[in-house]
Amino acid sequence: MILQTSQLTKKFGGNVAVKDVSFSIQQGKVNAIIGPNGAGKSTFFNLITGIHPPTEGQIFYKGEEITKYPANKIAELGLARTFQTTNLFERATVFDNVVVGHRLRTKSNLFDAIFRTKRLKREEETCKEKALEVLDFTGLSNVSDQLVANISQEEKKRVAFALALATEPEIVFLDEPTAGVNPDETEELALLIKKMAEKGLTVCLIEHKMQMIMSLADQIMVLNYGEKIAEGTPEEIKNNEEVIKAYLGGGSASA
Ligand SMILES: Nc1ncnc2c1ncn2[C@@H]1O[C@H](COP(=O)(O)OP(=O)(O)OP(=O)(O)O)[C@@H](O)[C@H]1O
Asked: Which residues are listed as membrane-spanning (predicted)?
């Protein structure tokens, strides 16, 4: 277990978005969080990655309590996240978008930038090398000089992965990584996610595409109205009465 939450709760006014959720993310595996619309999935991600502070409960990363850490500190620890609508720079090239990712690991400051110090040049070189490596890994080398505005939706999803990978994370949090792409492209992206876990990365993702999740995930947690109603292997989840009830009772899961 690389990351654990203990009785995590988030209230927005009177609305309890996440309620008492204790969950362990398994290292080097694909961990999925599913649930009907408004179940609290994105909020749960936001709590772990420091975007919102929890109202109650604790978060531990490799045994260290990180509950109150701000998002930048959490990112530095090795937790990277993508968003449903990742804000890429559309008028910049794929390469330039990805180079930015590794800046998290560099130390150059304004002084270095003004005087173009050796440190700056060395770090620029490392950022470029890292960008080339992750572009290769995500299958984007052939479009690296193109403007993001001119590439396909599926390629944009890959750029979002590449950006996260460039930060040299230990866990990647992917929020609906295949939203808005067709079934063939979904399969391609699923293969890439599998490849990340095979490389030793821990993956945690939110997804609505059930078929994909069932074949991709090692472990699934199901949220409903902010509460964890089940967790287990895809096989266990498929046959879980509570889960079936939650989805039949107005959920929005699509195949
Ligand atoms: N910043 C916020 N302020 C107030 N309420 C919020 C905020 N973010 C989420 N909520 C509420 O918390 C609940 C859970 O929302 P959340 O977006 O986490 O669900 P979700 O499972 O990710 O949904 P979806 O699948 O539709 O993305 C909802 O009732 C939502 O309206």
From this structure: none
